[in-house]
């Protein structure tokens, strides 16, 4: 995730900011232009404030804007263009929230708190989807498999629990995953090295993009050669995994123990780690981070990972960067920020994902 700057005062802005802490202006993110804007109300609409930065001559006036309808519940800071009061797009929702099909009962205060955290993670995901130019068919587009999100709370009167997963374009995230304590308890019980809300989004959308980018494409055979044949019985594979665990020596071929369960899960785990990598490398580049602790621990992060054609360069920067970040975390008495290793087989899989994703870029920048 890159950094932004207030066009009024030059203050550094972060993706989740809603108010500039220096000049106090309201902020909104305009995804069509990948800009964070300081805005002010003008009757029923919002307008960008004058740009006083050094790049002012390059800035364009986006015209009248409206906040996404979920802004009213402090659940979104994205904006949509509008025609003097009438927002464009389905029902005034932004490019991220247009994909929502079901949200929890928001008359319950606890649900609102967890849902707003869910939406924050979803916007991070959708930022990557947009930057990578990935297809994102809307629910009303007529596409046979649109990208749809359902955020569901457990029914207190039922013993059945909501399961996070993907099914034919519908990504379901259990609301309880937004509860940090509950999620950490599940992570510990399942012996997982990593479990985050954003990680769930990145993993589940990986299943979705397997359908769109692999299943019916010329990449299917190559994908099977790397990840295995997805036609293997999934229920049987799941039962075997939870009874016997990951096979011995899995660390040499898979990014996580869960990836060993079935080729679909290996793909989804690798996809999630690819999104971890490009988004974090963009942040590192925005911060001007350098790692220089010897030949085996050196990285110069100065390219846009979302448009880089060189998977080897991305991985070459990612490995020393994560080793450095893990060392910093340990200095604070914390567990490793990135508790994974990337053996040669995993790097090959990441490169395959990268090359497939780059096909979606109509005009490569690098």
Low-pLDDT segments, ≥5 res: none
Number of strands: 14
Give the SSE order as H and E letters. Answer: EEEEEEEEEHEEEHHHHHEEHH
β-sheet strand percentage: 5-15%
Give, in spatial order, the strands making up the sheet with the most strands.
Answer: 9-10-12-11
Count of DSSP helices?
A: 8
Q: Helical proportion?
A: 25-40%
Derived structural class: alpha+beta
Largest sheet: 4 strands, mixed
- Cα distance, first to last residue? 18 Å
Q: What is the approximate shape? A: globular
Mean pLDDT: 92
What Rg is obtained from the alpha carbons, in whole angstroms?
21 Å
Task: Give a structural overview.
The protein has 366 residues and is α+β, with helices and mostly antiparallel strands. Among the domains are: 4-95, no CATH class; 99-213, no CATH class. Helix content is 36%, strand content 14%. It has eight helices and 14 strands. It has helices at residues 109-131, 180-189, 197-215, 220-227, 234-244, 263-286, 311-331, 344-358, and strands at 4-5, 12-13, 26-30, 35-42, 45-48, 65-67, 79-83, 86-87, 100-102, 148-152, 165-167, 170-174, 290-292, 298-300. It is globular, with a radius of gyration of 21 Å.
SSE layout:
Blueprint: E1 4-5, E2 12-13, E3 26-30, E4 35-42, E5 45-48, E6 65-67, E7 79-83, E8 86-87, E9 100-102, H1 109-131, E10 148-152, E11 165-167, E12 170-174, H2 180-189, H3 197-215, H4 220-227, H5 234-244, H6 263-286, E13 290-292, E14 298-300, H7 311-331, H8 344-358
Parallel strand pairs: 9-10, 10-12
Antiparallel strand pairs: 1-2, 3-4, 4-5, 6-7, 7-8, 11-12, 13-14
